[in-house]
Write a structure and sequence with these properties.
By secondary structure, this protein is an alpha+beta fold. The chain contains 13 helices and 16 strands. The strands form three sheets. A seven-stranded mixed sheet has the order 5-6-7-2-14-13-12. The longest helix is centred in the middle third of the chain and has 20 residues. 43% of the residues are buried.
C-alpha cells in the first residue's frame, strides 16, 4: 500500500515552512554507547527502520501548488548514509527534505564511547516517534549482529493508521490515552481521569452556559497567545547581535547541545516531592525553567520586564487507537505565561503551574493549537504570512521524554542494568528541541537508568559557552530549591 503522494498535514506544513538555514526545524536525540559498532549492519538497520516508517524515508515536493510527501525516487535508498567521525560536538543540523530523507544519524567517537546522534526533521515526527524509531533500530541491529533468523519484537504498524496522524484527538479519545509515563502522572491525575471518564459516560447534556464559557475560554486563550509577544531570553552582553560567528566564536549554525545529570538519589527526592504535592515531575521542570528565565531577564533584560515569560510545552496527543501508527507528529503545544512582576514565591508558582497543567491535560486545552492550525492549514499562505510577521512564539521550550528505560525494558535485552544491542550497551539517552527565531533556549528532559538528564540549546548568536553552562547550573539549582 502506497501512501504517496499526499499533502503535508497542518502541523507538518508548519514545520516545513518554518525551516530555514539559520534555524533548522530538526531536533537531535542522542544515545551514548559503549562497545564496537558494525558499520554495515548499522546502515542496514537504519534502512529497515526507514522502510517501516513511511515519513522517515519520504521526500517533499510541490504538487498542485502545495507541499506533498512523495516516495523515494526509484533506485534511491530511503535512509541517508550514516556519518562516522572522531570527536566533536553534537550540533543542530538542517535536513533538506527535497533531496534527502528526514533522519540523519551520526556516530561520534569520543573518550572510548560512541555518541549516536539522530537528527529528525520535525515535519516527519515528534519526540515520541523519534524515540520509537531509535528503539526499533536497536532491536533490529541486535537481531542482525547475533545472526538470528527471527524478527525482533516490533510493534505491528497498521497501514490504515497513517491517515489518522493529522486528526485532532478529542477529549473522549484521550480518556483512553495510552503510553503516558508514570513519572508524569500522580494519584491526582488518575483520580481526575476517572472522574472525566465517568462524566463522559453520563447522559447529562452540557448546559448552554457551560458551552458559552467553553467558547469564551478557547477564544480568550487564543487571543492571549496571538496578541501577547513574550520576552526573549536576554543576552548577558546586550550589544551581542547575530553575525557570521556566534558568541562562542563558532559558525552561527553551530548550535551545540549541553547536558547535566541528576543521579538516582536526587531523582528519588524529586519524585517524592512531586508525589507529596499531587504534582508531576514535569510541573517541577516547568517551574524551574520559569524561575531561571525570569531571574535571568531580571538581571540582563533591557525593556522586556513588562513582557511575560512564556514556556511552550509539547503535549503528546496519542490515544489507544494510535498504537499501530508509524512515526509521525501526534503532538500539540501548550503555552504557559507568567510575569516577572508577579513575584510569586517558588512554592506558589509551582502550585499555579500544577493547576494549569492539570487543566491542560484534563480538558485537552492544547488541542486548541491544532484546531487553529487546521483552519490556517487550508491556506498555506496564511501560515507563511504569520511566520514572517511574528517573531518569538515563546521565551523557552520544555520537552520531556519521560521514563525512557521503563518502556524500553519491555522490548529490549538488558544485562547489568544496561540495554544491550549486539556488542553495544546504551549508557545514556537524551535530546533537546530545536531553536527558532526569538526562542533562544530549549530544554529537554529524560529519565534513563534512574538518572535524570537535562539537555539544552542556547542560541549561540547571543550566548557563549560559559553562558550556556551557567544557565544549566541555575536551572538545576532552581529545581533543587523547589524540592527542599
Amino acid at each position: 500500500m502506497s501512501h504517496f503522494p499526499c499533502p503535508l498535514s497542518p502541523f507538518e506544513l508548519l514545520m516545513w515552512l518554518d525551516d530555514s538555514a539559520a534555524y533548522p526545524m530538526a531536533f537531535p536525540i542522542i544515545g551514548e554507547l559503549t562497545g564496537d559498532v558494525d558499520r554495515i549492519l548499522a546502515q542496514q538497520a537504519l534502512e529497515a527502520v526507514c522502510d517501516r516508517h513511511p515519513l522517515l524515508g519520504a521526500r517533499v515536493a510541490e504538487l498542485h501548488g502545495r507541499p506533498h510527501w512523495i516516495a523515494t525516487p526509484p533506485g534511491a535508498s530511503k535512509s541517508n548514509p550514516i556519518v562516522w567521525r572522531d570527536d566533536g560536538e553534537v550540533a543542530q543540523q538542517r535536513l533538506d527534505l527535497r533531496n534527502e530523507s528526514g533522519v540523519r544519524v551520526e556516530f561520534i567517537r569520543t573518550n572510548h564511547r560512541w555518541r549516536m546522534a539522530w537528527h529528525f526533521h520535525h515535519s516527519c515526527c515528534d519526540g515520541v516517534g523519534a524515540a520509537t524509531a531509535i528503539g526499533e533500530w536497536l532491536m533490529i541491529y541486535d537481531a542482525m549482529t547475533n545472526g538470528r533468523d527471527w524478527r525482533p519484537d516490533l510493534e505491528t504498524i497498521e497501514e490504515q493508521a497513517f491517515a489518522r496522524r493529522a486528526r485532532v484527538r478529542s477529549r473522549r479519545d484521550r480518556a483512553t490515552r495510552t503510553g503516558r509515563s508514570r513519572e508524569n502522572r500522580s494519584q491526582t491525575d488518575h483520580a481526575n481521569d476517572s472522574r472525566a471518564s465517568r462524566k463522559m459516560q453520563s447522559p447529562e447534556r452540557v448546559s448552554w452556559w457551560r458551552r458559552l464559557r467553553g467558547v469564551w475560554s478557547h477564544a480568550s486563550q487564543a487571543l492571549r497567545v496571538v496578541m501577547t509577544t513574550p520576552a526573549e531570553l536576554a543576552p548577558v552582553v546586550a550589544s551581542k547581535v547575530a553575525t557570521d560567528t556566534n558568541a562562542a566564536g563558532l559558525p552561527a549554525a553551530m548550535t551545540v547541545v549541553r547536558i547535566r545529570h541528576w543521579d538516582a538519589e536526587q531523582l528519588a527526592a524529586l519524585r517524592r516531592a512531586a508525589e507529596a504535592r499531587g504534582a508531576r515531575v514535569n510541573d517541577y521542570l516547568l517551574t524551574a525553567l520559569m524561575i531561571v528565565t525570569g531571574s535571568w531577564n531580571q538581571r540582563y533584560a533591557n525593556g522586556q520586564k513588562t513582557r511575560p515569560i512564556r514556556v511552550m510545552m509539547p503535549t503528546n496527543q496519542r490515544v489507544a487507537e494510535d498504537r499501530g501508527l508509524s512515526a509521525a507528529n501526534v503532538v500539540s503545544y501548550a503555552m504557559l505565561d507568567r510575569h516577572i512582576s508577579d513575584q510569586l514565591a517558588p512554592v506558589d508558582l509551582l502550585e499555579s503551574v500544577r493547576r494549569e497543567t492539570a487543566a491542560i491535560a484534563r480538558h485537552n486545552l492544547s488541542g486548541r493549537f491544532l484546531i487553529s492550525l487546521g483552519v490556517a492549514g487550508r491556506w498555506p499562505r496564511i501560515i507563511r504570512y504569520a511566520l514572517q510577521r511574528r517573531g518569538s512564539w515563546s521565551t523557552a521550550v520544555l520537552s520531556n521524554l519521560g521514563e525512557v528505560s521503563r518502556r524500553a525494558r519491555r522490548k529490549h535485552r538488558w544485562e547489568d542494568d544496561r540495554l544491550v544491542a549486539g556488542g553495544l550497551r546504551l549508557e545514556a539517552f537524551y535530546g533537546a528541541p530545536q531553536l527558532r527565531p526569538g526562542t533562544r533556549v530549549t530544554v529537554g528532559a529524560s529519565i534513563f537508568r534512574d538518572r535524570l538528564t537535562v539537555a539544552a540549546f542556547l542560541d549561540p548568536r547571543f550566548f557563549s559557552a560559559s553562558d550556556h553552562e551557567e544557565f544549566l547550573d541555575q536551572f538545576l539549582a532552581a529545581l533543587a530549591e523547589l524540592i527542599r
